[in-house]
Amino acid sequence: MAMIEIRNLWKEFGEDVVLERLNASIEAREFVTVVGASGCGKTTFLKMLLGTETPTRGELLLDGKPIPEEPDATRGIVFQRYSVMPHLDATGNVMLAGELEASRWLGRVFGAHRRRLRDDAIAMLKEVGLEHALDKYPHELSGGMQQRLALAQALIKKPRILLLDEPFGALDPGIRRDMHELVSRLWREQQLTVFMITHDIEEGFALGTRLWVFDKERLDPQAPEAYGARITYDLAVGRDDTGVLDDINADVDATARTIDTQTPQPTGEHS
Amino acid sequence: MKKLINRQPNRYARWFLGLLPFALLLAIYIGASSARLAENPDDPLLPSLTQMAEAVERMAFEPSKRSGDYLLLQDTLASLQRLGIGIGFSAALALIFGIANGAIPYVRATLSPLVVGVSLVPPMAILPILFIVFGLEELAKVMLIIIGVTPFMIRDMQQRTLEIPEEQIIKMQTLGANTWQTITRLMLPQIMPRLLATTRLALGTAWLFLIAAEAIAATEGLGYRIFLVRRYLSMDVILPYVLWITLLALVIDFLLNRWSRWRYPWFHATGQ
Known about the structure:
The complex is a heterodimer of chains A (about 270) and B (about 270). Chain A has a domain at about 5-75 and about 160-260: Rossmann fold, CATH 3.40.50. Chain A has 7 helices and 10 strands. Chain A has helices at about 40-50, 90-100, 110-125, 145-155, 175-190, 200-205, 240-260, and strands spanning about 5-15, 15-25, 30-35, 55-60, 65, 75-80, 160-165, 195, 210-215, 230-235. Chain A has a 6-stranded mixed β-sheet with strand order 6-7-8-3-9-10, sandwiched between helices. A 4-stranded antiparallel β-sheet of chain A has the order 2-1-4-5, with helices on one face. In chain A, strand 4 (about 55-60) and strand 5 form a beta hairpin. Chain B has about 270 residues and is an all-alpha fold. Chain B has one domain: MetI-like (MetI-like fold). In chain B, about 80% of the residues lie in helices and about 0% in strands. Chain B is built from 11 helices and no strands. In chain B, helix 8 (about 180-215) packs antiparallel against helix 10 and helix 9 (about 220-230) packs antiparallel against helix 10 (about 235-265). The radius of gyration of chain B is 24 Å and the shape is globular. The relative contact order of chain B is 0.11. Chains A and B meet through strand 6 and helix 2 of A and helix 7, helix 8 and helix 11 of B. Chain A: It comes from Halovibrio salipaludis.
């Protein structure tokens, strides 16, 4: 059975149709990357996977059951920013999930249990290359290191699916390449299922096993909100395929220009 | 020559410039005071520094002839106790209700309009009610401080809680946190340094209400003393008392700031 199933899914905000007639399924261990113009519902779809938005029509199933309508431990997330807790050091951030699970009321553990959580956290921090920053606070870390920390913090909870919302969008190109290697390795080693939004189509091609393009098939230049976006490309990727990449680039750019000239950014998209 | 907006004073120049207005004020005072005293040695309005030193000597270091107490010490302790209890309770209430309002939409929908309404009542207008209900003893003065500063502190804490990035609240839930854990492990620690900042601001208002309450009904306290000796135009006591209150406020503010920087270095490092 597919891990995530999307059946005739629609999302509307009042008059504005954001997504229409989505049908797809994601198997466990897949790495789906999603590209598309701003305003094409990528982030809205991610929020539905996360549980902070609900579908207007249709079904979104996780393991055959409707996806919970609030965030919980089945779905881990790394945002572009603000993903780690500024008031905890690196080790504290990674220990947080274990502490919350162990102590319902205090949210803290002590003694031998604490040492065990700490050892696990340190092992996870080594995994993401932060062994030299164990007691650093997030503000003392660079953007790339903060995202490494956010990954470690999310992965130690072993989520069914890991959601990444443009996690490397704010990073320098060199750092971004390092992060790609890290995410690829973690995905293989930890047998993750990953759903990642990106602005960078090349990143989508290089990183995933599967690339989705969210785009508006029908596009009225006078009223871009009248029709929603669909998944216009659903490709197995992981090999170099420049022709398709150029096609997608051209399509996405055309949509982006139309939306950009017609509408302010719809609420709910942050980019 | 650089433009004036681009020219920075060096360290010594900053000290010199910063102290200059104080020195000028002092010089003007001394000049005016000696001019008046030369005309009439019994003039009470602008006492000389020596007269003020004598008054401080009398108030601070000699037991009162009537009661045998050291009046400045007694007044200071009485005022600080009222201020401490009042501001302490206010901060605790602001923390509890501010976080509850900020974190839980149902609580916010219920209490937020009430807090806004209460915060618009001018506290001095209900001072008579406080004296009638709570009597003329300590409770009424402490209550005036609490009623005066708590509502706006709650509103501020509520706002600060709402400003915690949505991303972090979602992240907590994906790490398995329930509502209580989200409050205790995310919101509470992030709000604490902001509570200290708000308390520092609220202290100015708290002093105002304290001195007002003491002026109207008290038997000891810094505000009581100032308004008592006003009858005799004892500027030689009033001026040192005002300076002393200013100094106390400065020290309290300094200590709160130091505490915040010591306990919450991450808060000050991010420049918030």
